[in-house]
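Service request form, structural biology core

Requester: graduate student, group of Dr. S.
Request type: structure prediction, single chain
Budget code: on file
Notes: please return the result as structure tokens.

Sequence provided:
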Amino acid sequence: MRIQAAITGVASYLPDYVMTNAEIETMVDTTNEWIIERSGVHERRILKDKDKATAFMAAEAAKNLLKKKNLDPTEIDLIIVSTATPEYQFPATANVVGHLIGATRAWSFDLMGACSGFIYALTVGSKFIETGTHKKVLVIGSDKMSTIVDWTDRRTCILFGDGAGAALLEPNTEGYGIVDSRMYSDGSGQPHLYQVAGGSLNPASEETVRNRQHFISMNGQAVFKLAVVKMADVAEEMMMRNGLQSEDVAWLVPHQANKRIIETTAERMKIGMDKVMLNIANYGNTTTGTLPICLTEWETKLKKGDNIILTTFGAGFTWGGLYAKWAYDTPEKQTHKNGSAVNANVASR
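Core staff response, request fulfilled:
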């Protein structure tokens, strides 16, 4: 009997501090109306504590998930953390997370796919389940984007926020779980969205700091044009490869980079926005965290057997799609640790 990797639980962590567009207006030459029109972002969460970063948020999301599933951390076999803002150059952020949550029997590694990292990590993690070598794989997307945002650049500082989400993968032989995925990358896109300094080519120096090269550098127009096409393309590909019609898709789970990109993807798939997980207004682009945060917020609306399609686009360029049959029902509203229950905006959707 075929073993599939099923998502059996999700959880998230979002910092308490809410940075509104009104606050952004005091920092750069922009307006609330312009930000909403261009991106769909109304506010974002920022991790203000300088002593806490990507590993802390990832660990909090993981702890919330372990508590929800009533799991001992020593039951976890593998931890994969997808992040564009690692805790250190080395060791891996996943290594730090394993220690923070007490997963003493797990091995761990980081996966870098920029905004596509969570789908990449789900795909990789699923293979360890499908081969039968692992029973419980923890996949986490976590980014403290506020550390690499140039708060004087109105083109980019409006877009990003901090946050983390986690998913547990376990074996399933009933036909539920990850059915198909398709990943892509195109290195020619590197100059359009990257961090110039901080790596081995341009290590930190007085010059790189003075030239503000440790922040996000983005050609927004080039990224937008390709993202609109590629996210929609790969979502359609998932449907075609698996014989799905628009009415067969229960939910589209898109990367939360830009509301216009998301709307175009839904239109190409011929599904209404009522079937799209959309929370960019509340959190902005949390990079690798967007997809698991969405899944956490919509968990109570998902039903066992639902066909869901995840799609994403990120720096590199990287993009991908994943088709899964949801593996469980959630009878009660769950909570994530940000001081409150699941966002009230979700409950009203």
